[in-house]
Write a structure and sequence with these properties.
mainly alpha; Growth Hormone, Chain: A
Length: about 425
């Protein structure tokens, strides 16, 4: 095995996957604690659910949407500089949020700090992991994505507990310290892959964005994110409104986090047999089933637990499989930029979902109205993804020069030794 390819599936590669898992786990986990803060912030600033939820919508839009540019930065500079800059902004955003005196200030400091800061490194870390693996790429993506499940599992109930004892402002400062520690550990473990091309992939990315497969996945991801972020913003609040104790309501997000870990590992473990695209379609089809249990729960905690477990299982599979699906369809060249553009469309869904659910809850006394909207978004996204092909995109059939542009290892079964792997890691 040559030096250019001996990084594939190596111990060093698994260390990168673990580092990405820790850094992204902290970022996702902290952002998903917003549902624990929404009541306290709304009460202090005397705002209803709709305006308060915009804080979460803006931050998640920037968190995912920044991938449109951070992916290209990752292809050029590698992930470590992005983790340094983004991690600093993320922690600074948490501290700044603890000092806001009006809800609109939270739109700016939480959105730009945590949203934009986290978005600088989130998508690049996932795409970097994909470039370190061939045979075990889907499983490695599952390991990298497991961090967000662990972060959600641990940090949401932790945040709810410290809010009750320390207040929401001090809680954000405590989360800033925890975030800094996680990012430092991730920085030690993560590095650039030799197969991550430093630019020159713009033409390939443009070709990717013109394909039917990319457009289909983008729409499906956007609709799925609308439903998911709408649910994440209010699952704790709605449970409390239905008479569930605050601590038990917060545990619902822990159930989501725990089951998402299972979903990531189980689905990626069998991806080689059934195919990542088919498994992703199944995961999205199962999400409306989870939301159906939310609709019929009506304060019954065991049904809420079923909802949370199913949502975590299917959402976890989606996160873990997405990177492998991108590599399967479009190859590794420019994978940071391609993955980032998909994150961008998820960002639009994340921006729209929480305010839609929040304002519907403000306008209607019937809980089925906002929950029904979540169900409809998820179902439509699943149906759109069902129209996607299950074969890699054949760029050679569309352009005579695409063979050179697609200098990568598109799937785990590829035996080629492309020249892009001769690049030295940075």
């Amino acid at each position: 095995m040559s030096e250019a390819t001996d990084h594939f599936d190596s111990p060093r590669a698994w260390a990168v996957a673990i580092g990405a898992s820790i850094a992204n786990g902290v970022a996702f986990g902290v952002l998903y604690t917003f549902g624990a803060f929404v009541s306290s912030m709304g009460e202090e600033f005397d705002t209803k659910l709709g305006p308060t939820s915009i804080v979460f919508g803006v931050s998640m839009f920037l968190f995912f949407g920044t991938g449109a540019i951070s992916g290209r930065w990752a292809d050029r500079y590698g992930p470590r500089p992005l983790l340094i800059i983004g991690g600093t902004l993320f922690c600074g955003g948490l501290v700044a949020t603890s000092f806001v005196t009006a809800i609109w200030q939270g739109y700016i400091v939480y959105g730009l700090g945590c949203g934009f800061g986290g978005g600088i490194f989130c998508s690049p870390l996932f795409s970097t992991v994909a470039t370190f693996f061939v045979k075990y790429r889907a499983l490695a993506q599952g390991v990298a994505a497991t961090g967000s499940g662990i972060g959600t599992l641990a940090l949401v109930p932790f945040a709810k507990a410290i809010i009750e004892t320390e207040g929401w402002r001090s809680s954000y400062r405590i989360l800033a310290v925890i975030s800094a520690m996680g990012f430092l550990v991730g920085l030690v473990l993560v590095r650039r892959s030799p197969s991550q091309a430093p630019g020159g992939a713009q033409g390939h990315v443009r070709r990717v964005m013109r394909t039917k497969e990319f457009k289909t996945i983008s729409v499906a991801f956007g609709l799925m994110s609308m439903a998911l972020m709408g649910a994440f913003a209010f699952v704790i609040k709605f449970a409390e409104d239905d008479g569930i104790a605050p601590s038990k309501a917060a545990l619902l997000m822990s159930v989501v986090g725990a089951s998402s870990i299972l979903g990531r590992l189980l689905l990626t473990a069998v991806a080689g047999k059934l195919g990542s695209v088919r498994l992703l379609q199944i995961a999205l089809l199962a999400q409306p089933v989870a939301y159906f249990f939310w609709i019929i729960a009506n304060g019954r905690y065991f049904l809420l637990v079923i909802f949370a477990a199913l949502l975590g299982l299917t959402y976890g599979g989606f996160v873990a499989l997405a990177g492998d699906v991108v590599a399967f369809y479009f190859g590794l060249m420019g994978i940071g930029a391609v993955t980032g553009m998909l994150f961008f469309w998820s960002g639009f869904g994340s921006l729209a979902g929480p305010p839609i659910v929040g304002f519907l809850a403000d306008l209607s006394t019937l809980r089925v109205v906002p929950l029904g909207a979540v169900f409809a978004m998820a179902l439509l996204g699943a149906l759109v993804l069902l129209t996607a092909a299950t074969k890699p995109v054949n760029f050679e059939a569309n352009a005579p020069t695409s063979s050179a542009a697609r200098s990568d290892v598109p799937a785990a079964t590829s035996k080629s030794r492309p020249t892009v792997f001769e690049l030295e890691p940075v």
